[in-house]
């Protein structure tokens, strides 16, 4: 039976064998890897991954696709978790996880933030996403793509954009270009804020009015920030401030009692 892509799940099925091969080479799966695939769909990546892996776990929200997957592979080779990827406890699936997937573009940012909460259990992640999103993820301070997503992910991951994927590689084709990104969690000993909640609140507020000078956007807190020590100029906007500077800024505000721990 032909499966019709469901818009509510953001389904665009990868059908380009050359792109599939390129992704598999980038992942470089090994037999004993603890691999989790999000959104296996019609098995474009699932089948070639299983050529290298002894066992694979997939997360699929579409019950029809989940049933198809269970019928195609024995349970000892393929574990199918029928669930919303946004609600899965990835830390409960093991340690040194390798997570891959062609992620639904309509939930990409919330899913990336959810996965970041489980990064201690992850070895690496390889995802296909909208190119615009990946450009924002890897953007450097000072660029127009640099923003909240850049800062929040760069304090947790080392990230590299690998290659682009054109719309015609999918059925149905999306209206945007796609890209593949590699995300490697930064390990113990990495710089981290005193309070993750305070850091997140500061970054969200800083980029809420990104065209305004940062001292004006943070006017309520400006007197408790040592701008000179941070190296932030009076006219700087949020896009000029590095993740490390934002961390130091949030730590200053926590120490001053302006942001809660």
From TrEMBL:
<dbReference type="InterPro" id="IPR011530">
    <property type="entry name" value="rRNA_adenine_dimethylase"/>
</dbReference>
<dbReference type="InterPro" id="IPR023165">
    <property type="entry name" value="rRNA_Ade_diMease-like_C"/>
</dbReference>
<comment type="similarity">
    <text>Belongs to the class I-like SAM-binding methyltransferase superfamily. rRNA adenine N(6)-methyltransferase family. RsmA subfamily.</text>
</comment>
<dbReference type="InterPro" id="IPR029063">
    <property type="entry name" value="SAM-dependent_MTases_sf"/>
</dbReference>
<protein>
    <recommendedName>
        <fullName>Ribosomal RNA small subunit methyltransferase A</fullName>
        <ecNumber>2.1.1.182</ecNumber>
    </recommendedName>
</protein>
<keyword id="KW-0489">Methyltransferase</keyword>
<feature type="binding site">
    <location>
        <position position="14"/>
    </location>
    <ligand>
        <name>S-adenosyl-L-methionine</name>
    </ligand>
</feature>
<dbReference type="Pfam" id="PF00398">
    <property type="entry name" value="RrnaAD"/>
</dbReference>
<feature type="domain" description="Ribosomal RNA adenine methylase transferase N-terminal">
    <location>
        <begin position="19"/>
        <end position="187"/>
    </location>
</feature>
<feature type="binding site">
    <location>
        <position position="39"/>
    </location>
    <ligand>
        <name>S-adenosyl-L-methionine</name>
    </ligand>
</feature>
<feature type="binding site">
    <location>
        <position position="60"/>
    </location>
    <ligand>
        <name>S-adenosyl-L-methionine</name>
    </ligand>
</feature>
<keyword id="KW-0694">RNA-binding</keyword>
<dbReference type="InterPro" id="IPR020596">
    <property type="entry name" value="rRNA_Ade_Mease_Trfase_CS"/>
</dbReference>
<keyword id="KW-0963">Cytoplasm</keyword>
<feature type="binding site">
    <location>
        <position position="84"/>
    </location>
    <ligand>
        <name>S-adenosyl-L-methionine</name>
    </ligand>
</feature>
<dbReference type="GO" id="GO:0052908">
    <property type="term" value="F:16S rRNA (adenine(1518)-N(6)/adenine(1519)-N(6))-dimethyltransferase activity"/>
</dbReference>
<dbReference type="InterPro" id="IPR020598">
    <property type="entry name" value="rRNA_Ade_methylase_Trfase_N"/>
</dbReference>
<keyword id="KW-0808">Transferase</keyword>
<dbReference type="InterPro" id="IPR001737">
    <property type="entry name" value="KsgA/Erm"/>
</dbReference>
<feature type="binding site">
    <location>
        <position position="102"/>
    </location>
    <ligand>
        <name>S-adenosyl-L-methionine</name>
    </ligand>
</feature>
<keyword id="KW-0698">rRNA processing</keyword>
<comment type="function">
    <text>Specifically dimethylates two adjacent adenosines (A1518 and A1519) in the loop of a conserved hairpin near the 3'-end of 16S rRNA in the 30S particle. May play a critical role in biogenesis of 30S subunits.</text>
</comment>
<keyword id="KW-0949">S-adenosyl-L-methionine</keyword>
<feature type="binding site">
    <location>
        <position position="12"/>
    </location>
    <ligand>
        <name>S-adenosyl-L-methionine</name>
    </ligand>
</feature>
């Amino acid at each position: 039976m032909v499966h019709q892509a469901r818009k509510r799940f953001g389904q665009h099925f990868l059908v380009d064998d050359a792109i599939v091969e390129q992704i598999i080479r980038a992942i470089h799966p090994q037999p004993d890897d603890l691999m989790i695939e999000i959104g296996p769909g019609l098995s474009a990546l699932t089948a070639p991954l299983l050529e290298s892996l002894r066992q694979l776990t997939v997360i699929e929200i579409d019950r029809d696709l989940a049933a198809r997957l269970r019928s195609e592979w024995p349970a000892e080779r393929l574990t199918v978790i029928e669930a919303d990827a946004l609600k899965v406890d990835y830390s409960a699936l093991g340690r040194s996880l390798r997570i891959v997937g062609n992620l639904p573009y309509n939930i990409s940012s919330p899913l990336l933030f959810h996965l970041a909460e489980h990064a201690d259990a992850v070895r690496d992640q390889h995802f296909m996403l909208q190119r615009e999103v990946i450009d924002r993820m890897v953007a450097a301070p000072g660029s127009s793509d640099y923003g909240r997503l850049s800062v929040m992910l760069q304090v947790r991951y080392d990230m590299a954009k690998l290659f682009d994927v054109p719309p015609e590689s999918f059925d149905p084709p999306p209206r945007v270009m796609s890209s593949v990104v590699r995300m490697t969690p930064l390990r113990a000993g990495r710089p981290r804020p005193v309070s993750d909640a305070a850091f997140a609140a500061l970054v969200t507020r800083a980029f809420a009015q990104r065209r305004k000078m940062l001292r004006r956007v943070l006017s309520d807190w400006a007197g408790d920030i040592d701008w000179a020590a941070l190296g932030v100029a009076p006219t700087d906007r949020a896009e000029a401030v590095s993740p490390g500077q934002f961390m130091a800024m949030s730590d200053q505000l926590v120490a001053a009692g302006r942001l809660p721990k």
